[in-house]
Amino acid sequence: MPLTIPSWVPPNVKFEIDDATLRWTWDNNTFDFIHIRYLFGAIKDWTSLFKEAYRCCAPDGWIQSAEADVHIRSDDGTTDDLDCLKLWAKLFTEGGAALGSPFFVQEGDLQEKGIQAAGFTDIKSIEYKFPIGGWARDPELRSVGNYVKATLENDLEGYTLLLWKTILQWPEDEYQVFLMEMRKFLRNKKVHAYMTVRYVYARKAEAS
């Protein structure tokens, strides 16, 4: 895997490539703060992941886990009849099942359950909606939505190609139709779609 490092980084920052699903290479009680983000679809055993985080977290240190929900939805029903979104959900549901690594982390409360099982305390969870497209009235959310739309539209194949063609081996001609319908949805200003991201915080109790 190529590692792209910025030309300038703070003196207390370094980059390492490792496999987070194996035993972590750091000693016990190394970090005061551990941030884990966007590993949906990559983790088979969330409890084991958080147990390693607990081992490497210093007493009275904190963990923060942030995971997006792959579901695309709306509060006003404007996404309900879109076949491409039903296929989007099916792709990630069946793809995650085939991989043994779920994409829908929020549905099973995998963050909270894994963090609690690892031994952390003072667990708090908060969810944020982020719109897809510039439909939100709030200027800041509208800006966020435009970035989310651009990201999804530019990276559609990056998100879906492996699952569709390699893991599930669905028909290639149908894939091009799916991409076309997804882009049409993303450009439709009448659809008030959003996704959610859940942040879970917890603390490792001080040693008695």
UniProtKB/TrEMBL annotation:
Domain of life: Eukaryota
InterPro entries, alphabetized: SAM-dependent_MTases_sf
GO molecular function annotation: methyltransferase activity
PANTHER family for this protein: ABC TRANSMEMBRANE TYPE-1 DOMAIN-CONTAINING PROTEIN-RELATED, METHYLTRANSFERASE
The family this protein is said to belong to: Belongs to the methyltransferase superfamily. LaeA methyltransferase family.
UniProt name for this protein: TAM domain-containing protein
Organism: Fusarium napiforme
